[in-house]
């Protein structure tokens, strides 16, 4: 049972993609808070939270007071009450009446903020990847199970019908047996530069359990470019590629890879410590699923296929991207192009509606993007990074998440936290 009892009402309108007027009185809205008021929270999550009509944002938390005040002003401009503002998420979690939290911070903070939310009985809308390391993910799973927390993970592409269409086509047998799968992203990353830490930014708290880092930003920005720094993020595969690898797992019903190997490196002169080219082989009991990326300006031969996933079948090959999914028969027949359903603001609104219904029913039964499935994909990309970092392959025990025949990778399943922070796994 959860530690807090929530108001339960009737079901939300089935199939609704967007609500322009609240379904309930303002006093009945679920009281929610946001941890991390950066670009993603402001540009992708804030408006869908409001449009769902289901939530009252009562608090915001960020270590950057400038970002915090900007989001607060956006809420006031939208006609909502001024939220309480916090620099400490732990203090915010103590706020009377708080029922749920959006965690939109960089990955190195997810585990501690999630586990603490569960211990306070708060339901969670969580960004991906779930965790920075494998053991964090296991600790988060235990915390969720103990608290009975409702969790929605931010995988918007799973909310469209594209995956289901590709899945149905493959299951029809028209593509034949799938022999190999490959996901890829090829694009040019921008260089980053060390800058002076703004007075409004508590960078030591931002680093949190990770080692203290240089303050690195894009040339025209003054906020940390955490995606380029290993201790905050493990690069493009974990940050962006995880969406397409998650798609593949859902389409083919895959669990956790049985073995993983990788090759990659850094060839550009940008000051980053994540690989700018990487190729990973995830083996699923004989089915090879490959990841590939190049971020130094590689011009893919077919530009429209530079981002997405290929399914290579005996009879046909399938490409699934964000704007189309395409069939290329192996007999040379004309390709068949299906327009894909694009991810829009309404997609995020639907996730918020599902999350609200889960909270009201105290159940994860209607959640599309479950914690458990997201954990498997997060572990998958974590193993891929470990194979690259250690320069050696590994076999994986799916029940324990342990690895064999790679002692260095086994030791890296749990990273050391910076004092005074304590890793949640034991």
Quick take:
The chain is of the alpha/beta class.
Low-confidence stretches: 3-27
Helix/sheet category = alpha/beta
Helix amount, in percent? Answer: 25-40%
| Average pLDDT metric | 93
- Second CATH tier, the architecture of the largest domain: 2-Layer Sandwich
Q: Sketch the major β-sheet.
A: 10 strands, mixed
- Count of individual beta strands: 18
Question: Could you walk me through the main structural features you see in this protein, from its secondary elements to its overall organization?
Answer:
With 426 residues, the protein is α/β, with parallel strands linked by helices. It has 2 domains: 26-158 and 345-369, NAD(P)-binding Rossmann-like Domain (Rossmann fold), CATH 3.40.50.720; 161-190 and 234-342 and 377-411, Dihydrodipicolinate Reductase, domain 2, CATH 3.30.360. It contains 11 helices and 18 strands. It has helices at 39-51, 65-77, 89-93, 107-119, 134-147, 162-171, 203-207, 236-252, 345-361, 371-390, 407-411, and strands spanning 30-35, 55-61, 84-86, 100-103, 123-126, 151-153, 178-186, 192-194, 216-218, 259-265, 277-284, 287-294, 307-313, 316-320, 324-329, 336-339, 394-396, 403-404. The strands form 3 sheets. Strands 16-15-14-13-7-12-11-10-17-18 form a 10-stranded mixed sheet. It is globular, with a radius of gyration of 21 Å.
List keywords for this structure.
single chain, 426 residues, alpha/beta, Rossmann fold, Dihydrodipicolinate Reductase, domain 2, 10-stranded mixed beta sheet, 6-stranded parallel beta sheet, 11 helices, 22% strand, globular, disordered N terminus
């Amino acid at each position: 049972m959860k530690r807090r009892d929530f108001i339960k009402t009737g079901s939300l309108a089935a199939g609704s993609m967007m609500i322009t007027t609240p379904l309930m009185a303002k006093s009945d809205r679920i009281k929610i808070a946001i941890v991390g008021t950066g670009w993603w929270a402001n540009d992708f999550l804030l408006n869908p939270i409001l449009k769902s009509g289901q939530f009252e944002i009562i608090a915001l938390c960020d270590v950057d007071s400038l970002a915090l005040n900007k989001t607060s002003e956006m809420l006031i401009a939208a006609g909502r009450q001024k939220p309480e503002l916090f620099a400490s998420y732990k203090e915010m979690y103590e706020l009377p009446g708080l029922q749920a939290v959006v965690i939109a911070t960089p990955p190195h903070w997810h585990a501690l903020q999630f586990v603490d939310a569960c211990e306070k009985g708060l339901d969670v809308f969580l960004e991906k990847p779930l965790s920075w390391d494998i053991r964090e993910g296991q600790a988060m799973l235990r915390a969720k199970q103990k608290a009975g927390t409702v969790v929605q993970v931010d995988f918007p592409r799973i909310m469209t019908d594209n995956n289901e269409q590709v899945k149905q086509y493959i299951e029809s047998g028209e593509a034949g047996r799938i022999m190999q799968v490959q996901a890829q992203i090829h694009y040019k990353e921008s260089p980053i530069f060390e800058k002076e830490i703004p007075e409004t930014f508590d960078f030591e708290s931002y680093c949190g359990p990770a080692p203290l880092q240089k303050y690195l930003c894009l040339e025209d920005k003054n906020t940390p470019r955490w995606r380029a720094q290993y201790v905050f993020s493990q690069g493009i595969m974990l940050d962006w590629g995880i969406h397409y690898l998650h798609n593949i797992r859902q389409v083919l019903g895959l669990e956790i890879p049985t073995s993983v190997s990788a090759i990659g490196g850094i060839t550009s002169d940008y000051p980053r410590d994540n690989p700018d080219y990487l190729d990973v082989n995830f083996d699923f009991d004989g089915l090879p699923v490959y990841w590939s990326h190049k971020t130094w300006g590689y011009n893919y031969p077919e530009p429209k296929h530079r981002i997405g996933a290929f399914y290579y079948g005996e009879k046909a090959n399938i490409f699934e991207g964000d704007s189309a999914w395409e069939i290329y028969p192996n007999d040379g027949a004309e390709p068949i192009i299906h327009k894909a359903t694009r991810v829009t603001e309404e997609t995020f609104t639907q996730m918020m509606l599902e999350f609200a219904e889960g909270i009201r029913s105290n159940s994860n039964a209607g959640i599309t993007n479950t914690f458990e499935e997201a954990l498997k994909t997060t572990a998958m990309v974590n193993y891929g990074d470990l194979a690259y970092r250690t320069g050696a392959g590994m076999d994986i025990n799916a029940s324990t998440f342990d690895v064999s025949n790679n002692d260095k990778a086994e030791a890296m399943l749990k990273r050391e936290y910076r004092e005074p922070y304590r890793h949640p796994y034991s």
